[in-house]
Design a protein that fits this description.
With 115 residues, this protein is mainly α. The chain folds into two domains: 2-80, no CATH class; 82-115. It has helices at residues 2-5, 18-30, 42-46, 48-57, 67-71, 82-108, and strands at residues 36-38, 62-64, 76-77. A three-stranded parallel sheet has the order 1-2-3. The N and C termini lie far apart (54 Å).
Amino acid sequence: MAASSVGQRLHVLAVATEADIAAAFDELTNHQVGGLLVNTDPFFMSHRADLISLERRHKLPTVHTIREYTIAGGLMSYGFSIADDVAPSGYTMDRARCGFLAKAAFRSRKMPIDS
């Protein structure tokens, strides 16, 4: 593993339930882990307030993969914001849909279409 090549230990914990979250933080504390990386996952997103609360309680520096955790009070994140990433595609889809409807209306009247 890359971690061991630089003299570090990597702990990977599986979390599937709310009870697992608190147990994972206890385990990280017992192993004296110096930092945590939380992957983007719908389960973690729905429990981000719990995660951030435990990060603070255990004083564990944590990096999140999306900005929404930082907005909710997490220490830091890298990567994108889901809201910023999805909004432009909705705008583009809306413009495409409106353009399609306008062209369909012109076609039904047998009018020329400038593309």
